[in-house]
Automatic annotation (TrEMBL):
The keyword Signal applies. This is LRRNT domain-containing protein. Residues 1-26 form the signal peptide. It comes from Capitella teleta. The lineage of its organism: Eukaryota, Metazoa, Spiralia, Lophotrochozoa, Annelida. PANTHER family: AGAP008170-PA, LRRNT DOMAIN-CONTAINING PROTEIN. Pfam families: LRR_8. One of its GO terms (cellular component) is extracellular space. Keywords: Leucine-rich repeat, Repeat, Signal.
Amino acid sequence: MLRTFSTDDFVKVWLILLLLCTLSTKQITFEKEKSKLTSVPSEIPSEVTKINLKENILTSIPDRCFSRFTNLTSVSLDKNKITDVSTTAFQGLAKVKEISLANNLLPSIPALESVENSLVNLYESPVQNIDFSNNKIAVLNPGLFENCTKLVSLKLESNQLTVLPDGVFGPAGTSLRYLSLKSNKLNTVENGTFAYLTNLHELYMENNQFKEFPMEISKLVSIRKLFPRMESNNQHPR
Ligand SMILES: *[C@@H]1O[C@H](CO)[C@@H](O)[C@H](O)[C@H]1NC(C)=O
Ligand SMILES: *[C@@H]1O[C@H](CO)[C@@H](O)[C@H](O)[C@H]1NC(C)=O
Ligand SMILES: *[C@@H]1O[C@H](CO)[C@@H](O)[C@H](O)[C@H]1NC(C)=O
């Protein structure tokens, strides 16, 4: 016999679902900001899901440094003095969604391996937010983000980039919503670079060295916020 659900039943079901969600997304955060740390502390429990080591004086991130934190979803190493990140530093982490290495001294974007002896890099799924703002990055390796199907936000502002090479965003680039390249030394966006960024909503490219408005921008069919605006493109009048 059919029995209609009462409001009480709905409330019970809802509470059970809420409880399940809370249990499955338990966050364990380790934070140690402004503590003059020179290395990643050994007392961090392996269960952590978030690590925040902002404003310390780390200079390098050694081999497999974060590998034991298999449930890690977010790591912030902002405002340290990092010049070097081992390719295996984050190896084996399958759940990382956010990586911030902003405000460091990196000369290039570290090629981070996802698992041992694999061509897959860590920026590929499931990483969604990457922040490399304010480093010394001069060159983007073509293809670096070509397979990053989950990448939503990429911040590369205040670096030393001069060229955006064709191929840096491949067919996977359709996931990208936010891209900041402001305050670099960009003078060229190669033909084809933005061809796959069909869902990009926000693009920040002000304070660069373009002599003319990069025509690639006209390929961004979903753009909602764009800087510089078309009409204010007279940074370097001829
Ligand atoms: C990661 O989370 C799962 C599920 O909550 C748990 O069983 C496992 O022990 C955790 N891993 C570590 C290293 O804490
Ligand atoms: C992207 O995936 C293709 C096909 O699997 C592979 O050949 C290529 O090397 C990958 N690119 C990067 C940068 O890992
Ligand atoms: C890029 O495209 C423009 C317009 O279609 C064309 O004039 C220019 O020659 C192309 N540049 C290269 C390097 O292919």
